Amino acid sequence: MNFSSLFSSVFLSVTVLTPYLVQGYQANQPPQQPALSRRGLLATAAATTAAALLSSPRQVLADEGDSLTDVYFGVGCFWHIQHEFIEGERNILGRNDHQLTALAGYAGGKETGSEGRVCYHNFQRLADYGKMGHGEVVGMSIPESKIGDFADLYFSLFNPRTKDRVDPQDRGGEYRSLLGLPGGTKHPSYPSVEQAAKKYGFSLEAGKGNDPDTLGKQLVYVYDTKKFPFYQAEVYHQYHDDFQSPPYGKAYNKLADLALDEGRIKTTGCPDRV
Questions:
Q1: 204 pairs with which residues across the strands?
Q2: 262-267, long-range: CB within 8 Å, 24+ apart, which pairs?
Q3: How far apart are CA 222 and CA 207, in angstroms?
Q4: Above 50 in pLDDT, residue 262?
Q5: Of 65, 69, 15, residue with least CA distance to 42
Q6: What pLDDT is stored for residue 61 in this prediction?
Q7: Which burial class, exposed, middle or buried, applies to 272 when counting CB atoms under 10 A from its CB (0-12, 13-18, 19+)?
Q8: d(CA 154, CA 195)
């Protein structure tokens, strides 16, 4: 999720138009037609700027001095996990539909396909995530101070009785338990992750890439996102119903189209519906 282009455009609009606004104040007389035109342009730019800032979590949801951090979490199929982390974004961070960042994806493998692609199983046998050692995850951008809160949410998603994923019928490294932080176990917020893991009875281990399934081990691999980055999954996987819960509803499913229109979901070059 790269918002630098959005910020640059907004900054450029304000920078270019500000001198005209100052000039209008200094004139102290009814504006002539060119000034009226500039005023209308400024009003339009201001409205566009406000809308853009409201739709950008990097602009409105990180308190001063609290940087946003890209992280990911995985435990079994990513459909259910994405829904739960979207609820976390709403409840913990107060985000709205235009500010959600949680996306289904892949991470933890040592390889990618051509052009850096990582894809779901497909008949073309193109960049298969399982064969390249990746696991299913949900990636998101959250304030650094909230990593502990989201870690606590993550561990609450395991079956409390078995301390395993809620879909144990899915087997293999693709469904292993894993999480990713910049720097991995060396991230400053890692102790809060350790605390959450201990609270729920799990151990943590630094991931080496292409790691095996964790079923029955009460183990979560921790990856350095700089070495093992997040790869967004196909559009058709986003905001998808799962097999553990009743359908989430069309309003939830349609959030995929909204995110695609707003650029928060990208096409991946993998076989997809778009």
A1: 220
A2: 262/55, 262/98, 264/1, 264/100, 264/101, 264/103, 265/103, 265/232, 265/235, 265/238, 266/232, 267/235
A3: 5
A4: yes
A5: 15
A6: 53
A7: middle
A8: 12
* 168 membership: H or E segment, kind and range: none
Token representation of residue 82 = 């994405």
Which residues have a Cβ under 8 Å from the Cβ of 62 and sit 6 or more positions away? 68, 143
124 neighbors 271 (Cβ within 8 angstroms): yes
Kindly report the three-state secondary structure assignment for every residue of 76-142: CCHHHHHHHHHHHHHHHHCCCCCCCCCEEEEECCCCCCHHHCCECCCCCCCCECCCCCCEEEEEEEE
Percent of the chain predicted with pLDDT > 70: 77
Size (the chain), residues:
274
**pLDDT-derived band of residue 46, with 50, 70 and 90 as boundaries?**
very low
Amino acid, res. 226: K
Cα–Cα distance for residue pair 105/102, rounded to 1 Å: 9
Integer Cα distance of 63 and 207 in angstroms: 31
> Which pLDDT tens digit goes with each residue over 124-160?
999 999 999 999 999 999 999 999 999 999 999 999 9
Q: What is the pLDDT of residue 62?
A: 62
Average pLDDT of the chain, as a whole number: 84
Cα–Cα distance list, 83 to 35, 63, 90, 154 (Å): 49, 25, 11, 12
Residue type, 204: L
Which pTM value belongs to this model? 0.79
Whether 73 and 221 have beta carbons less than 8 Å apart is answered as no
pLDDT, tens digit, 9 for 90 and up, residues 177-194: 999 999 999 999 999 999
pLDDT at 53 over 50: no
Tokens of 84: 């739960």
